[in-house]
Amino acid sequence: MRLEFTCEPAGAAPVAMDIEVDSLVIAGWTGRDREAMEAHIRELEEIGVPRPAQTPTYYRVAASLLTQDGEIEVAGTTSSGEVEFVVFAAGGELLVGLGSDHTDRELEKTGVTWSKQACAKPVGRTLWRHADLADHWDRLVLRSWATTDGERSLYQEGPVTTMRDPQDLLSGYLQRGPRPAGLAMYCGTLAVHGGLRPADLFEIELEDPVLGRSLRHAYRIRPLPVAG
Asked: 48 Cβ partners below 8 Å, 6+ apart?
């Protein structure tokens, strides 16, 4: 899956970049803050999703699910988004982007792996160099907003310290074998405000208050009829 990005190095001009993603991994239950992770586990348990056997868990899904489009199509109205930072191992360095692990919540009750595979995975078009963020990584903030029937509300907000450092997550995955070419990894999410729910429009943000910049992306969700 070839994606086109703009890489924004700190203190330098933006650079156009194409990345071929051959392996897409969704890292789940990545909490560095055990209390925050437990809150997310409990909110999923409330809708019938079983507690994970181990944390973190690495779900391999099709790289073709990645999309930079402003709209995705989903089956029915039982899916919802999750803001996440996304890392790309490309060109000999680690790059950081922004994405949504859009997931079918009804299917999640049957099996998390199946639910991860059921929906497109939106990702923004701009990347940062992890090397430019390493000295202040813990200052970054994730947010998302859900708009339903014209009403926009804050859906998620919190520091990236809720999740494990991306290099730690990559190391944990790579203990299973050699690094595949073109690896992209979604790195975990935050508990939501007001419970998991579908939306018509989902907006996501990764803010870097130290360098005074943000990554942003938004996409609409178009439900398709469920015939049976």
From this structure: 108, 109
Identify the burial level of 128 via C-beta atoms within 10 angstroms of its C-beta, where 0-12 means exposed, 13-18 middle and 19 or more buried: buried
What phi-psi label fits residue 53: left (phi over 0), alpha (psi between -120 and 50 degrees) or beta?
alpha
Number of domains observed in the structure of the chain: 1
Domain span at 82: 2-224
Q: Report the length, in residues, of the chain.
A: 228
Distance CA 9, CA 19 (A): 16
Looking at residue 43, its pLDDT comes to 77
How far is CA 71 from its chain centroid?
16
Instruction: List b or e across 129-168, with b for residues whose CB sees 16 or more CB atoms inside 10 angstroms.
Output: bbebbeeebeebebbbbbbeeeeeeebbbbbbbbbbbbee
Q: Give the closest residue to 58 by CA, choosing from 30, 90, 94, 98.
A: 30
Window from 13-22, 28-37, 148-157 with minimum mean pLDDT: 28-37
We report the CATH number of the domain holding residue 53 as 3.90.850.10
Q: Tell me, yes or no, if the pTM score tops 0.85.
A: yes
User: If we measure between CA atoms, which residue out of 164, 186, 14 comes closest to residue 87?
Assistant: 186
